[in-house]
Each structure stands twice: as structure tokens, then as C-alpha cells.
Write a structure and sequence with these properties.
The structure holds 2 protein chains of 2 kinds. Chain A is α/β, with parallel strands linked by helices. Chain A folds into 3 domains: 15-189, no CATH class; 205-262, no CATH class; 269-467, 3-Layer(aba) Sandwich (Rossmann fold). Chain A contains 22 helices and 7 strands. Chain A has helices at 14-39, 50-67, 69-74, 82-94, 104-117, 120-132, 138-150, 154-160, 162-171, 178-185, 196-204, 216-226, 230-237, 243-248, 250-256, 269-277, 283-300, 327-342, 372-380, 400-411, 451-458, 464-476; strands at residues 305-312, 343-350, 385-389, 418-423, 426-427, 432-433, 441-444. In chain A, the strands form 2 sheets. Chain A has a 5-stranded parallel β-sheet with strand order 2-1-3-4-7, sandwiched between helices. A two-stranded antiparallel ribbon of chain A has the order 5-6. In chain A, helix 20 links the parallel strand 3 (385-389) and strand 4. Chain B has 2 domains: 9-68 and 116-125 and 154-320, no CATH class; 137-150 and 321-365, no CATH class. Helices cover 24% and strands 25% of the residues of chain B. Chain B contains 9 helices and 17 strands. Chain B has helices at residues 119-126, 142-147, 165-171, 198-201, 215-223, 241-264, 320-334, 339-345, 350-360; strands spanning 9-10, 14-16, 19-25, 33-39, 44-50, 53-58, 61-67, 94-96, 112-115, 157-158, 178-185, 188-194, 212-213, 272-279, 282-288, 298-304, 310-317. In chain B, the strands form 4 sheets. In chain B, strands 1, 2, 3, 11, 12, 14, 15, 16 and 17 form a 9-stranded antiparallel β-sheet that branches. In chain B, a hairpin with a 2-residue loop joins strand 14 and strand 15. Chain B is globular, with a radius of gyration of 24 Å. Classes of the chains: A alpha/beta, B alpha+beta. Chain A binds chain B through residues 46-47, 315-317, 366-369, 372-373, 376, 379-380, 395-400, 403-404, 406-408, 410-411, and chain B through 11-15, 23, 171, 173-176, 230-234, 237-238, 240-241, 244-245, 247-248, 251-252, 255.
């Protein structure tokens, strides 16, 4: 029985109080885990090393899996980043015995739904890890079987991720019928394939012409084998590239003097901005800056937010680390663009006012963090919702943001302005994104596209099991 | 004379582990002075001092000072107008302070001065009473009477040896106007480093890691891994947004005042200054502290302008053993190196005094070891 459907006339007993406390604990635990698992990527951060983060994350994963098994599986529906979603799945599969029988079906469905959304190379890498860890229970084998069966083009996967697919097939004891099996396990003996893609791989070993029918990454290997000049190779292969491959080969193409066209308005704004921030002045950066509003509108036009003020941190600590260069700043810049498209009116306040007047992709993360002044400006504008995108470290003056937020609570005791702090950086010491001020919700954020989900997470109240059910539902139906 | 931080303001400090870095800001840098760092082409340099003497040093970087006498701005060294495909020319600008084995002829208009960071300050310490006793009292060893304190040595640790300094410098967020930094380790003031302008400070920020520091700082960082938190809260609930804004401004101002107060007496009251070089309106000088027991002794070097404003400053905190050795030299020099007089003044027997000298590390000064001395 949950507090919501308890008959009103029954006086609360000690047992009810206990149940409510348990619900509070479950909510706290879930939010701590989800916040961490949305921000942390197991890489170096500006202030923290990957090793320290790994310790904290290990603890969080193990704790939630053991203490709240069902919530742990359900958290897959709450926009965990790829790295942590894979870890959750790995943990669930490796420890299937602990699943209560009544949740087994739901857990299996969540795993299958999550795997369908993850990039194939990451899923196949997970299968490889399961193999190394000797995880080969019946559910794991069924999961691998279902995932492979659900892929749109098995032949394409077999060509593009040949070694990984081969390992997965072997690990799950699957039969690979027809040419697929022959291609994976006996390719060298074959004198010819009827499937055009398999045949192209066979021919590519001998002919430099055949490589252009292959996926880009596979063709790249053969291009090296045949010593095809880079410029000629890029010029002919670019039809075969995926959108992401086009994005990331821009600089290689420019160096080779080839144009690889990419429609930046189709890119995710955070990725677009992260690339744009790495560029020097020139037409490439201008094109990105021009495409940003449209790319943002594509994602955010249905957000339906009201009057929003956003405080954005551009200080030096937003430069990230060698592993994730300028990532926090990219989240802030992309967040600005998305909010512009997703709300009725937006007031933007950077920590270094004035500089943002220039193109935002020209910004570089530098100088001290002064969150207090932009916060004051933002509050003076009287917004309905105040968002802060920052790593939560302010030092000019230290604790300035906290003082403003605390002072504001005295001025606005009813909470007419909703304040949410979005933090793209994981702090291993506090087991989550570093908070700014007690009483202001801090939510972890991997990319700016997830702002609506982050806002939903910031508003969780009551019994978390009730709250999470519709999310799980939508996730399983393939909507979230 | 005390050091005044006129024209400089302090911004709120940033803490990382045991290390507290206080940013020093200068809002109006002078245009007629430039100090830039130069990578050394030959890392080990040898200088013939005449006779059989040669002087060798290992210094990874040097500072080059350029100035104008009449207040005209100094051209940025190395500025060149180039086409997109031209390669920049490398030009030698400066004259070394010491003469090399084969001195280079100065060209027309060349006047820049090169010196090594921290070398002035440390040489000031090492050459303090370097000549030894003025009068050959029988208590002093023949070696000291003949050669003075040579060879005199003190040891320091590099910034890398201070646990957490690397991380603190890396994560430090530089202010746009920042020209320097005050380094505290476990709340012990360890070093000040101030440059004439922000553009000159920024590339040298991380060079603190290769600077010399007193060993005491490395110990402090090891045993006190967390700095004491300084916080200046606002205690009164604000009346409205304007009031809240005023409170934040107040907090920021009090950080400045508080730190100015804390740092006012950092280098001690009575510094002994020696001017080393005069460059137009600027003087390059070094200072020694009083070495009094119970004080922290900082030696340092500075460039002061005609108004006494600090343009460049670098200080080194001495270990207590170094301070004590230098203090004994001062005491001895004060009585003309006459041991009985000093013993009387300190109300000690001569033997007790000798034992104290031995304990401080000055055994080599004495002709005979004191009785009862174990070594």
C-alpha cells in the first residue's frame, strides 16, 4: 500500500511511518544513483581522476543492485548515459539469480529495450566483456540471441563488426545459418558469396575497386592494405559513411582537400557544439554556428517551457579533461541553444557577461567562476524557471552562489521561481554531481538534449516506485 | 623597509587539498616594462670567472627584462609581421648578467637584461657574510680564515616535491587581470610570485612547479593534507534583491580586506634590501629578512618602480635550520666575529656557544671542537 491510496480516516501507525521512511530512502538512493549515472562516464574530470570516479561508481552500482534490485533495473528508463546503462545491464545479467521471480519478466524486457537503444558497437563490446567475465547463463544467451535477431541487417553487422559478432555468436552458442555462418567462421575457404556485401569483402582483399561498396570503417582497413591515397579514398567512400562518421571525418577530409558533406542540422546540438568549440575561426565554424539554431529546434520545439532564465558557467573548470575536452562547456552552450528553441522566453546570463555577445562557438573556458552576479541578474528578471548549468565550483567569491540562493529563499519563501542546477560533471567525493546549495536540486546531465528528463527528475516527490512506473512503461513501449 | 603591495589587489583564494593560492590582481599594468621568460638554449651554462675559477649553473628558464626610460611602451619582443607562409625569425635580444666564456658583442640599441628567477634571492642568502671573519681570531679554523664560507650550500626542494601543488596549479582558475599568486601550504605562506602584467604571468603559472621551495613546505603538505576552510557568510537575511546584491558585494570586498590583513605582514617587518641593478626608473633588488628566532624567514627578489610599486616579486621561504645558520652569522658579524664577546652577550660560556654553533651546522667554522661535543 502506498501513501497515496491509504484511506484517509486511518491514523498513521508506526508501521506506516516506517514505510514512509523506507520510501524516502529508496527515493534518495535512486536519485543519487541516477544523477551519478547520468553524469559520470568513467573518464577523467577536471577536478577528479578516472580512478577516483571508478571507486565511487562501483560502490553506487553495487549498492543499488543489492539494495533496490528492481529500481536498479528500472533506472535504465531514466536516461542513464551509455557507459552506465551498459554497466547496469552487465550487473543484472551477471547476477540473474538474485532477481525475484515476479520481476524477472520486467527486468528482461528492460534489458532488451535498453540494448535496442544503445549503439551496436557498444552492445557488442558488452557481449565481449560478458564473455571475458564468464557470464554465460541462459538469460545472457537469450539476450544476445534476441539482440542479434532484432538487428535490421545481420549481414551488415557481420561485416562491420565481424570479430565482435563472431565472438557473440560463439558465446551464445548460436547457429549461424547459411552464408552468414560461412562468412564469420570459414571466410578464407570460400570461393564466392551470393550476398553482395560478403562478396565485396572477399573481393576487397584483391581489388582496390571493391572496397567502395563496404562500410567506411571496414573499407578504411582495406584502403591501407591497397595503399589508396587518402584523398582519393575519402572522395569515393563518403557515400558509404554514416552521419556520425561524416561528422568526425571533417578535419581529415579538409586536410586531404575533399569535401565530405554533412547536414549539421541533423546533428545532436551537444555534439555539434563540442566539435564547433574545437575549431579555429573560419567558414567551418561559421557553418556550425549557423546550423545550431535549426539543430536545436529539431530537438527542443516541443519542450513547452515558459519564461526561463539560464545561468551558464564558462569558467576554466568547464574545460573538462583530456578525456572529455570542453565537454561541460559544450553542454552549457548547447543547453542555451536548445532552451532558446524550447521555451517561450529565455534570458541568458553567462558567468563572464558580455563575452557571449560574440559567437558562442568562439568561447573558450577560462578565468574564475563568478556565479553570484549572473544569478542576481537572472533573479532580477523574474523568471518562472531558473536553470544553472555549472560544475558547481564557484570561487569568486567562494560560496557566492550559495549565499545568493540562500538569500533568495528568504525573499521568496513560497518558491515562486523554480530553481534547478544541472551539472554535467561527476564528483566522486560527493558520489554525484557537486551541489551548489542545500535546498536547490542538482541533477546530473550528460548531454543538453536531456534537459526535460532532468527537470522531471528534479521534481520527484513521494513514493518513487509510483513515480517511475509510467517512465518504465513509456520506455518499454519505445517512446522515451 | 617593508614591502608594500600598492597597486595590487587580492582576489578570493582558491583551495585544493593543502594548497591555498591567492590570486594577485593588477588592474593597470605599466607599458614601459616588460619581463618575459626565455627558454634556455644551453641548460648548463659555464662562465669563466678569471684565474682557474669557473662557474656552472643549471637553470631551465630565464627572465628577460626590457624597459624604456621615458615611459614609452615597450615593443613586445619578437613581434614580427609575417605572411601566411613565412617562418618567424629567431632573434637574440638580451645581454646576460654574467659574462660568458666568450662574451657576445652587444648590437646597437640592445639593452635587455637577462636574469635567472630566484637566483638573485638565493645568492643573497648564500653570500651573506660570505667572506667569513674580518679578524683572524684564534677560534676560527684556518679554512674559514683563508677561504671564507666557501663552499656555502643550502638545499631546497622543487615545487614538484610539494604534494598537491601540481594539482592545485592545474585546477586553479586564473583571473583575467591576474599578475601573480601567493602560495600557502597548510596555511604556511610559502612563496609570492608577481609579474608586471597578466600576459606575462599566465605562461609562467605552471613554472612554480620547478621553483625552489623550503623543505618545510613539502613536510607541511604531507602532514596536513587539507587547508583550513575560510568562509565569509552573510548572516543577515536580505530585505530585497538590491540588498542581497549589496551583501554579495560586501562579501567580495571583505575577502579582499581580510586577505590583505592576513597577508600584510607576510614577509616580516624589517627586510634588508640591496639594489642589484638600476634599469631606468626600475630597480632590481633583493632582500634578506632579520633571521630572528620565532619568525618565518623569506628571502626574495623584486623589481620596484620609481613609486615603490612592486612590478616583479619572487620569494622563497627558508627552513628554520637555514634561518638559524644565517642568524648566527649575523650575530657573529655583529661582534666582529669575537666569540667571547658574543658568549658574554648571550650569557653563555664560550663552550656552550660553540656547541650551539656546531648544532646549527657551523662546525666547519671552529678550529677546535667544543668539549663534550659528540661529533
Amino acid at each position: 500500500m502506498t501513501p497515496n491510496n491509504r484511506p484517509a480516516e486511518v491514523a498513521p501507525t508506526a508501521r506506516d511511518g516506517h514505510r514512509e521512511r523506507a520510501a524516502d530512502v529508496a527515493r534518495e538512493d535512486l536519485l543519487t544513483f541516477v544523477n551519478a549515472a547520468r553524469a559520470a562516464t568513467g573518464q577523467d574530470e577536471f577536478y577528479e581522476s578516472a580512478e577516483a570516479a571508478a571507486l565511487s561508481l562501483d560502490f553506487l552500482h553495487t549498492y543499488l543492485r543489492v539494495a533496490h534490485r528492481r529500481l536498479y533495473a528500472q533506472s535504465l528508463a531514466l536516461g542513464l548515459n551509455d557507459f552506465n546503462a551498459l554497466r547496469v545491464i552487465e550487473g543484472l545479467l551477471a547476477d540473474g539469480r538474485s532477481t525475484p521471480a515476479e520481476h524477472r519478466a520486467e527486468e528482461g524486457a528492460l534489458i532488451r529495450a535498453a540494448l535496442r537503444r544503445l549503439p551496436p558497437q557498444r552492445v557488442l563490446a558488452l557481449f565481449g566483456r560478458l564473455r571475458t567475465a564468464n557470464v554465460n547463463n541462459r538469460r545472457t544467451r537469450a539476450t544476445i540471441r534476441d539482440w542479434l535477431a532484432g538487428r535490421p541487417d545481420a549481414a551488415f553487422d557481420a561485416v562491420k563488426y565481424r570479430r565482435k559478432v563472431k565472438a557473440a555468436v560463439r558465446h551464445a552458442h548460436l547457429a549461424a545459418p547459411g552464408e552468414l555462418g560461412k562468412f564469420l567462421f570459414q571466410a578464407k575457404k570460400m570461393r564466392g558469396f551470393t550476398h553482395p556485401l560478403f562478396e565485396a569483402v572477399r573481393k576487397a582483399r584483391y581489388s582496390a575497386e571493391a572496397i567502395y561498396e563496404l562500410p567506411y570503417t571496414v573499407a578504411e582497413g582495406f584502403a591501407g592494405h591497397h595503399r589508396v591515397p587518402r584523398a582519393r579514398f575519402l572522395e569515393r567512400i563518403h557515400q558509404q559513411m554514416t552521419h556520425t562518421e561524416r561528422q568526425r571525418s571533417q578535419q581529415a577530409a579538409e586536410a586531404a582537400g575533399v569535401v565530405v558533406e554533412v547536414d549539421w542540422t541533423q546533428a545532436l546540438p551537444t555534439e555539434l557544439v563540442r566539435y564547433g568549440l574545437s575549431l579555429g575561426p573560419g567558414p567551418a565554424r561559421d557553418a556550425l554556428q549557423a546550423a545550431l539554431p535549426e539543430a536545436a529546434r529539431r530537438i527542443a520545439h516541443g519542450w513547452g517551457l515558459g519564461r526561463v532564465a539560464v545561468v551558464l558557467d564558462a569558467s576554466y573548470s568547464m574545460s573538462g579533461s583530456r578525456d572529455k575536452r570542453r565537454h561541460p562547456l559544450a553542454v552549457a552552450v548547447a543547453g542555451r541553444a536548445l532552451l532558446q528553441a524550447g521555451c517561450r522566453a529565455l534570458a541568458v546570463h553567462w558567468t563572464r557577461g558580455g563575452e557571449a555577445a560574440r559567437g558562442e562557438l568562439e568561447m573558450s573556458p577560462q578565468s574564475q567562476t563568478n556565479l553570484a552576479d549572473p544569478l542576481l541578474e537572472a533573479l532580477a528578471g523574474g523568471p518562472e524557471l531558473l536553470l544553472i548549468i555549472s560544475d558547481g565550483v564557484d570561487n569568486d567569491p567562494p560560496g557566492g552562489a550559495e549565499a545568493v540562493l540562500k538569500g533568495w529563499r528568504h525573499l521568496d519563501p513560497g518558491g515562486s521561481v523554480r530553481i534547478v542546477h544541472l551539472n554535467p560533471v561527476f564528483d566522486s567525493g560527493s558520489l554525484g554531481p557537486r551541489p551548489l546549495c542545500e535546498g536547490v536540486v542538482t541533477v546530473g546531465l550528460r548531454t543538453a538534449e536531456e534537459i526535460p528528463l532532468a527537470l522531471a527528475l528534479a521534481g520527484v516527490e513521494g513514493d518513487v516506485a509510483d513515480w517511475i512506473a509510467p517512465w518504465v512503461d513509456r520506455f518499454l513501449r519505445g517512446q522515451a | 623597509m617593508n614591502l608594500r603591495f600598492r597597486g595590487l589587489t587580492l582576489a578570493p583564494s582558491q583551495v585544493c587539498g593543502a594548497v591555498r593560492l591567492v590570486p594577485v590582481l593588477r588592474h593597470h599594468p605599466r607599458a614601459d616594462l616588460r619581463l618575459w621568460s626565455k627558454r634556455q638554449d644551453a641548460v648548463v651554462t659555464g662562465v669563466a670567472l678569471g684565474g682557474n675559477l669557473h662557474y656552472y649553473n643549471y637553470i631551465p628558464s630565464a627572465l628577460v627584462l626590457d624597459w624604456t626610460d621615458d615611459g614609452r611602451p615597450v615593443v613586445t619582443p619578437g613581434s614580427q609581421l609575417l605572411g601566411p607562409r613565412d617562418r618567424p625569425q629567431f632573434i637574440k635580444f638580451e645581454q646576460r648578467m654574467v659574462k660568458r666564456t666568450a662574451p657576445r658583442k652587444l648590437g646597437e640599441g640592445e639593452r635587455a637584461l637577462r636574469f635567472f628567477p630566484q637566483q638573485l634571492a638565493l645568492e643573497g642568502l648564500l653570500t651573506h657574510h660570505f667572506g667569513g671573519p674580518d679578524i683572524a681570531w684564534p677560534a676560527w679554523s684556518a679554512q674559514i680564515l683563508r677561504r671564507g664560507l666557501s663552499p656555502r650550500s643550502e638545499s631546497f626542494v622543487a615545487g614538484q616535491a610539494i604534494r598537491g601543488l601540481d594539482e592545485a596549479l592545474r585546477t586553479f582558475e586564473l583571473h583575467p587581470d591576474q599578475v601573480g599568486v601567493l602560495v600557502f601550504v597548510a596555511e604556511i605562506f610559502g612563496a609570492a610570485f608577481i609579474m608586471p602584467s597578466a600576459a606575462e604571468y599566465r605562461p609562467l603559472h605552471r613554472s612554480l612547479l620547478s621553483d625552489a621551495f623550503g623543505e618545510a613546505l613539502a613536510d607541511a603538505a604531507r602532514w596536513h593534507p587539507i587547508a583550513y576552510p575560510w568562509s565569509l557568510p552573510t548572516d543577515r537575511p536580505p530585505r530585497d534583491l538590491v540588498d542581497l546584491k549589496a551583501q554579495i558585494a560586501q562579501v567580495r570586498a571583505s575577502w579582499g580586506e581580510f586577505q590583505t590583513l592576513v597577508t600584510a605582514d607576510l614577509l616580516g617587518e624589517d627586510l634588508r634590501w640591496t639594489q642589484v641593478y638600476r634599469a631606468g626608473p626600475f630597480s632590481l633588488a633583493r632582500f634578506l629578512p632579520s633571521f630572528e628566532p620565532g619568525t618565518r624567514a623569506h628571502v626574495g627578489e623584486a623589481i620596484l618602480d620609481d613609486e615603490g610599486e612592486v612590478q616583479y616579486l619572487r620569494t622563497v621561504l627558508l627552513g628554520d635550520d637555514m634561518r638559524e645558520r644565517a642568524w648566527w652569522l649575523d650575530r657573529l658579524a655583529g661582534v666582529g666575529w669575537h666569540l667571547p664577546t658574543l658568549a658574554e652577550r648571550l650569557r653563555l660560556t664560550e663552550d656552550q656557544l660553540k656547541r650551539k654553533l656546531v648544532r646549527a651546522g657551523w662546525e666547519g667554522l671552529l678550529r677546535e671542537k667544543p668539549q663534550g661535543s659528540s661529533s
